[in-house]
Specification:
Layout (H helix, E strand, L loop, with lengths): L23 E5 L4 H17 L4 E7 L26 E5 L1 H4 L6 H16 L4 E4 L4 H9 L4 E5 L13 E3 L6 H16 L21 H13 L5 E5 L11 H13 L3 E6 L4 H10 L4 E5 L2 H9 L3 E4 L3 H8 L4 E5 L4 H4 L6 E5 L15 H4 L3 H14 L12
Parallel strand pairs: 1-2, 1-4, 2-3, 4-5, 5-6, 7-8, 7-10, 8-9, 10-11, 11-12
Helix pairs in contact: 1-5, 1-10, 6-9, 7-8, 7-13
Length: 391
């Protein structure tokens, strides 16, 4: 293929929003799991403001199950399988970047882009703040592009037509403030109750079929109530030692609560280390995203560092014990759920992707994590009837 596909042409006039009508909105948040989850409340607020709006989402294929269950249509009437958006546009930027000008890349990329531009989005909202997400928002053909005035990658703001000074400490609050500006600007100042505390909500797919294999696997393990341990994280400095997760599993087992070890691609050896250290009180379970949603809905508790499954549990209202090191829980911690956050004062805030263990995080012992779990379990409905930890 010697030329750029016609679908990438920018010759079409931008789609302009007509005041007084429900807008056609494109959300751009490509990755990763926790960040996509942190964006859901903002999009939920946009949906509440315009129930009849056509909302699409541009996302990496790897994370599309957070918006739409496998096998469900990616566009059309919303349902429990795709509750929030009317259309899911998925891309594979990482894979495409390895062979940018091959037919195997250009054809699917052109198909996606044809779908995006054919949707005639009038407003695009970049909730990622990266150069690539800003460029994709601009290329969508939308006449108005919203983004943060101080995005994560500063040059991204060059592609925005509306730059919003975001408010709040937590990233969910910042995303909500950007959504609030979109609603106020497009509605002529009408705001309503879209940002009351009770409006901080998420819409995740609910797939009854995904629960069937999860129930079967739990039955095989003879588990009705359980905790989830998630030892993995994006980089080494955010990971708490595997043997300590094993010790936590032992402590929870003494309370009568066994554990499931969740792990992702490339984390099998880490999960096996936790399982070995647990003395038989924890079992490994690999899940797709849809299955993990179903599994997490059934859990009593989740223990993890700053990683996607932690934020999934928080979004689903599952109590979490969060073990933090270099990242700041005030910005990235569990939000609007029952939680205990453990972080040493010796941990310095940094988003550098270091593999070396965080010194402050190593100062958090398994006993403190078990005690935090005990506190949350006793506070949960029926928790006072559970036996106390021994020793």
């Amino acid at each position: 293929m010697s030329s750029v596909p016609k679908e990438f042409s920018q010759s079409d006039p931008p789609a302009i929003w007509t005041p007084g009508k429900s807008p056609r909105l494109l959300i751009v948040r490509l990755s990763a799991m926790g960040d996509v989850i942190h964006t859901l409340s903002a999009v939920h607020a946009l949906r509440r403001a315009w129930p009849q709006a056509h909302i699409g989402w541009l996302i990496e294929e790897r994370w599309a199950e957070l918006l739409c269950s496998p096998g469900a249509a990616r566009r059309g009437p919303r349902s429990a399988l795709r509750p929030l958006v009317d259309e899911v546009h998925s891309v594979g930027l990482k894979a495409w970047g390895k062979s940018l000008f091959s037919i195997a890349t250009l054809q699917p990329a052109a198909t996606v882009w044809n779908d995006v531009r054919s949707a005639r989005y009038q407003v695009a909202v970049d909730l990622q703040g990266a150069i690539r997400s800003a460029v994709l928002a601009r290329w969508s053909g939308a006449g108005v592009i919203y983004g943060a005035a101080q995005p994560r990658e500063a040059p991204a703001s060059l592609w925005y037509t509306r730059k919003i000074i975001t408010q709040g400490t937590h990233v969910i609050e910042q995303n909500l403030s950007l959504a609030r500006a979109v609603i106020e600007n497009l509605s002529g100042g009408r705001f309503g109750k879209h940002f009351s505390a009770s409006a901080v909500a998420v819409d995740l797919p609910r797939d009854p079929q995904a629960g069937v294999p999860i129930e079967q696997r739990l039955a095989a393990l003879k588990l009705s109530e359980f905790a989830i341990l998630n030892p993995g994280a994006g980089w080494g400095a955010k990971r708490w030692p595997a043997e300590r997760y094993g010790a936590v599993a032992c402590g929870l087992a003494r309370r009568g609560l066994r554990s499931i070890i969740n792990y992702g691609p490339g984390e099998e050896s880490l999960a096996r280390e936790v399982e070995g250290a647990s003395g038989g009180s924890a079992a490994m379970m690999r899940c797709s995203i849809t299955e993990l949603i179903a599994l997490t809905r059934r859990a009593r508790l989740l223990v993890a560092g700053d990683t996607g499954p932690l934020h999934l549990a928080a979004a689903l209202g599952i109590p979490v014990v969060a073990i933090y090191g270099p990242t700041d829980p005030a910005r990235n911690g569990p939000f609007a759920t029952h939680s205990v956050v453990l972080r040493s004062s010796e941990s310095l805030t940094s988003h550098a992707r270091r593999d070396a263990a965080d010194y402050g995080m190593l100062g958090i012992g398994s006993e403190a994590v078990v005690a935090a779990a005990e506190k949350l379990l006793l506070a949960a409905p029926g928790g006072s009837r559970a036996p106390q930890l021994k020793g």
